[in-house]
Amino acid sequence: MPVKLTSPTAAELLPVSGVLLGTTEANIKRPNRKDLLVIRLDDGATVAGVFTTNRFCAAPVTVAKEHLAASSTRALVVNTGNANAGTGEPGMAAARATCAELAKLLGCAPEAVLPFSTGVIMEPLPVDRIVAGLPQAVAALAEDNWHNAAHAIMTTDIVAKGCSRKVQIGGKTVTVTGIAKGSGMIHPNMATMLGYIATDAAVPQALLQTMVKTAADASFNSITVDGDTSTNDALMLIASGKSGASVSAANYAELQTAINEVAIQLAQAIVRDGEGATKFMTITVEGARDVAEAKQIAYAVARSPLVKTAFFASDPNLGRILAAIGYAGVSDLDVTRLKLYLDDVLVAENGGRAASYQEEDGARVMKQEDIGIRVVLDRGNATGTVWTCDFSYDYVKINASYRS
C-alpha cells in the first residue's frame, strides 16, 4: 500500500479558470476505467514543458515537442493503457491522427493539440478506440474536473495524485492546481512520469519555460523508485491568464514558489505510491562541493537494490549505504571525513562504525515508514536531496504481471 498517502478529494483540487478537463472510458487496455483525458485551453493561454531525454522516446513525446514549438496550444490529450513507444512510424502516424481528430472536435489546428500516452511499450496504439472516445471526453469538459482527470491518467498507480495552492500576486488571487501519474519506471532525466500543472496567472511563454524547468529540478528530478527512466515522461505547465494577475521576470518568485510546492508534493506522492513501496526515504547529502555532486551520491544510495531491500526488511545492514557512497563516482572523496546519520542516529564516522552506534537504534529507525538518511561529506557547502522508496516482494510481482 502507498506510504502515508491518500487520493485528494474533488474539493481539494481547485478549478483553474480557462482550463477545462474531460474524461471518458475508451477501453484502451481494459474496460470500466477512465483512460482518456482531454484538456482544453481558452484563447490566450501559454504552455511550456519538459520531456524525457530517453533516446527511445515515445511517438507522442516527439509530436508534442514539434507542436509546442510550432503553434499556440489549445488542447492536450492523454491516454493511459498504451505508451505508443517503440512503435516506429505507425506510432507517429497514430499520435498525429489523434491530434487531428481532437482538432476537428475543438475547431483548432492539429498542431495546436499536444498528445501524451502512458502504458505498455512496443504495442500499437488503438487509435480507433481513442477516436471513438474523444467526443465523450469533449462533452464532459468542465473546470472542476481535476479529480476525474487525476484518475484517468493512472497506470499501476494505486492512489490518484493532485494538489492545489493559492497565492496573492499584485492584489489578485492566483490558483495553481496540478495532477501527476507515476508509480514505476521512475528515475529522473527530466521527470519520470506525466504531470500537468496549471495556473490562472498570465505568464509569457519564455518565462513559463524557465519556470517549468525550475519546478522539475526541484521535484521530479529529485526522485527515483527503480532507476528506470521512462520513454514517455512529460511535465507541462499551463498559464491561462484568467485571474487578471500578470507575471514577469520581475515578480514571478511567489508564483514559482507555489508551482514548486505543487510539483514537490506530486513528486513525493509518486515515490510514496512506488510499486510495492512500504517505506519513504529522504536522502540528503550535505557538505558537497556542488549540488550535482551531492545528488550524484544521493542517487547512488537511492538506486541501490541492496539498500532498498534492507529498508524493506527493516534490517540495519547499513554498510550497504557506505558501499553505495563509495561507488558513486566521486574519485577524491575522503571517507574518513564523512559522517552517516539514520534520522538522529550517528551510524558511521572516521571511515567506519561510529563508537556510539548501537544496532538497536538503527533497527528502531528502520521500522518507521518515513526515514531520513543524512550524509555529511565535509568538503564544501552544497546540499542535495533525493526521495526514494524501498523494494518489496510486490515490486517484482507487479512488474512480472504488468501486461496480464
Explain how this protein is built.
With 404 residues, this protein is of the alpha+beta class. The protein has helices at residues 59-70, 88-106, 127-139, 146-152, 205-218, 253-272, 291-303, 305-312, 319-326, 359-366, 393-400; strands spanning 19-24, 36-41, 46-51, 75-82, 113-120, 161-169, 172-181, 194-199, 234-239, 280-288, 339-342, 345-349, 352-353, 370-376, 382-389. It folds into two domains: 10-272, L-amino peptidase D-ALA esterase/amidase (4-Layer Sandwich), CATH 3.60.70.12; 280-400, ArgJ beta chain, C-terminal domain (Ubiquitin-like (UB roll)), CATH 3.10.20. It has eleven helices and 15 strands. Strands 13-12-11-14-10-15 form a six-stranded mixed sheet. The protein has a five-stranded mixed sheet with strand order 3-9-8-7-6, with helices on both faces. Helix 1 crosses helix 2 (88-106) and helix 5 crosses helix 6 (253-272). The chain is globular, with a radius of gyration of 22 Å.
Secondary-structure map:
Layout: E1 19-24, E2 36-41, E3 46-51, H1 59-70, E4 75-82, H2 88-106, E5 113-120, H3 127-139, H4 146-152, E6 161-169, E7 172-181, E8 194-199, H5 205-218, E9 234-239, H6 253-272, E10 280-288, H7 291-303, H8 305-312, H9 319-326, E11 339-342, E12 345-349, E13 352-353, H10 359-366, E14 370-376, E15 382-389, H11 393-400
Parallel strand pairs: 4-5, 8-9, 10-14
Antiparallel strand pairs: 1-2, 2-4, 3-9, 6-7, 7-8, 10-15, 11-12, 11-14, 12-13
Helix pairs in contact: 1-2, 2-3, 5-6, 7-9
